[in-house]
Amino acid sequence: MLEATLNFKLLEMCSKCGACFSICPSATHIPGYDPRAVIKDILAGTYEKWLSSAHIWQCLECHFCLEICYQHYGFENAMTALRTVAAKKGMHPPQVKRGWDMFIKTSRLGEPTLPARKKLGLPEPTASGADEFKKLHALLKDAREGHKTE
Amino acid sequence: MKEFAVFWGCTIQTRFPFIEKSTRIVLEGFKLPYRDIDGFTCCPEKSLVNNIDHAMFTLTAARNVALVDEKGYDLVSPCTGCVSNLATVKGELKANPKEKGEVNSLLNQVGREFTGEAKLSHLVPFFHDMVGIHEIKKRMIKNFSGLKIALHYGCHMIRPSHALKNDDPLEPKKFDNIIKAMGAESVDHMTKLMCCGQGLDRVDMHDKALHFARIKLRELKQLGTDAMVLCCPSCFLQFDNNQFLMEKEGEKFGIPIIYFTELIGLSMGYSPEELGMNAHRVDCEPFIKKWESLCAKTDCAADIKAGLNSGGGILG
To answer: Which of A2, A16, B84, B164 is deepest in the core (most CB within 10 A)?
Structure first.
């Protein structure tokens, strides 16, 4: 359930357009970062080489491509799909792995710093939602298992 | 005004508690009906969580929105990323009843329900639309006339526009309107809307992150900018911390990075120390010094005020 998917019909149009190329900060400032090449490979079914490429993690998700896109689709969708496949194969950067582990374990990407809060005169942090979050994560896992066996 | 919960987010509370401080000072100062509520988790961070598990991204955001929905509050955040992520999921679920049903079937099992009724706003458009420029001017006792400020909107304050619906995503105006009303010059610059590039630091590409920061800081230095003003903890990390790291290696920029709430706080008469600005890594002192000297020059009524304060006054 709820898996990221690609719309190939829209991507076909992307391969003939390239408006996002002119506004994408990574395409402007990172040599070799080329939305058009990626889209071409996805459509040809030869995207495998991008899974191990650093470029798919250089998409900044700034949403410029989405805003300038005549289809309001956006190249970022292609990059998200590639990153999702790469992550499933365990090919994501170590920092992303660490971040995900911390998120799943604690429901946050860091805890409020108590001594600094005290020094600044800030109130006690509000109660954490971690327990309920963990329950929800377990429920999602179960729902997925059920979905598979149906 | 409707009551609203403040969504602080992980980055501000973990790394920059002084931003929480200045935000609270400003919310109190404007007597706004803000609330702290229990149970929030990470928004969650899109580039990290959504790439690995879209369902967990959606569920977590929907649960956070449900906490506010339940209370009948709106939500305001001083973090662009948090609002953008929460609004993206809210938009997706409102447009997709089947997905909303799936999400709620899980949320219901922990006693929650996503309705998506809460309005989700970032602090800057919130101040522009809900507090109003007139009110900001009313609370201001000192303005920033004579100072050149480079605004950095931060991508997620305005994009994706279909979810946030608060400004022009490619030519935003609201932050500019506020800064100009505060008397400062909003410096026009080529890299104004360029993504800060902090995301590169989150995927083990520190050198590339520095490169992105450098491009903007170089331009601002060349233009003689007095400070960069922004309202996103991720952009703050990029321009304050990474500028500091580059300066340590010998590249000098000297651009103080000021949070929106700090600028408002200063204009209301709070000291940089009260606002926690001494915790920045790049020194704000040059900006504060210049501002104070400009204030001293333009205060025509200084003599009269001094007379009144001394107790003598006109009746002396």
So the answer is: B84
